[in-house]
Amino acid sequence: MNISKIKINTINKARLITVVSIILGILFDYFFYNQSIGINFTIYLLLLILVFIGISTLLKNHIHTDVLFLLLALLFFSIMTFVRTSPLLTVLNIGICLFLLLILAKISFKEELKDFYLKDYIKIPFVALSFIPPLFQTLPLLYSSNKKKKNNRLLSQILKGLAISIPILFVFVLLFSSADLIFQRYVSDLITVNIELETIIRIILIFVVSLILIGAYSYTFSKSKKKSVVQDIPNKYSLGNVEASVVLGLVNILFFLFILIQFTYFFGGESNISSQGFTYAQYARQGFFELITVGILCLFLLLAIEKFIVRKNRVHSVEFKVLSSMLIAQVGVIMASAFMRLSLYEETYGFTTLRLYSHVFIVFLAVIFCLLVYKICRDKKENSFLLQVFVCVLLFLAGMNFLNPDSFIAKQNIQRFTDSGKLDVYYLSHLSDDAIPEVAELLDILEDEDMKNILGRELYWRQYEEDSMGWQSFNISRARAKKILDPIMLEMYKDYEGEELKEEGL
Question: What are the residue ranges spanned by the domains of the chain?
Fold first, then answer.
């Protein structure tokens, strides 16, 4: 009796997942085909979350607390794709949403996020490959029967016979049509469906998305397997305290020499630099990306040494703690140098997306180093440290969404224009719709007619291209930009007709 119930539940679960996945596949085509990212992404992610909660409720599966945290983070970043239009920020929001979905599939009823090690986070993008076996286990269950009545068995046999016959008949019809023109005419009169290439592409899209979702939901709601307990096994590549001290000691010496130069010249004033044949501008306004790279490499170096060093009684030696702390302190000085160099570069050439993200990333890197010092000195577990880093990544992306990068860049560049008269109009015109409120005000500030026409022309054509989007692409920033720009463009080009706009390049 119990075996029968388990079989029925398994079959019903497979059918439920398949039906829901097909519906979601059709909705994916409706929301995203030939559309830009906007409210469609938010709605679709919300549907995925609701389906997940709904199936969990029907199957009476208990959702871990970690999963609720992930669901809230997923909902937030999906909403931000509806609020912001910055291309890089949108890519990051979508990327973190996909990453969170894969973690959700991984840990929903099987593991806990607090037990994740570095290798577990690295493996997350490959979780999608784990959807394939559950997919092939689910599809055969669709043909299974819950009841053993004769009529149902007969109906099942007839349906299977039809399923086998249809492709065979289709091949024979094609061959007969090719062989006999009259038969071909009868077939053409009987079947008058004209299938376009776009229709085929959309059907394939629905089919592929449905299969992915069937595999994903089947994997998520599959029976949990106990994760093997991680034990401290000696590694043949382990480092002793002597080797680790030599490496960290030499790196500390190199960093110290570099910092001496920084204090003597970069922090010491322009007179010291000019004595070496360089201007302060030449010396200071380069090297920030290299110094950021140094910080990243140093982080990985410390993580690698800390991972493979031999510990006594699971505790780091005093030498390792002192040398690693000294190195992190020196990296902090180097990061400060990179931050100042980047600030000077922005004062001269203005703000860009890459420079702003680099600025914020330096602060983010400083926080990670602080967590690493705490981990080393307090000998905290690797999984606890990685969970803190993961939370910091989410907070970093959330902070960028609240900052509104393109709007911030536009404000800073306009302020620089009022102070120095320097402005890259073309770059400002190609910022996303997040910056339109600030860029639109610039049209009133500009006195140079050429700069004003360049800015107006770029804004006009961008609005013209966005008018053809459907409601699925609706976005708050995009709608606000249209509301601001429409009357401005109408006033600027009210005397032009369509052909004249083309001739003028507008």
Answer: 2-144+196-220, 241-402, 406-503
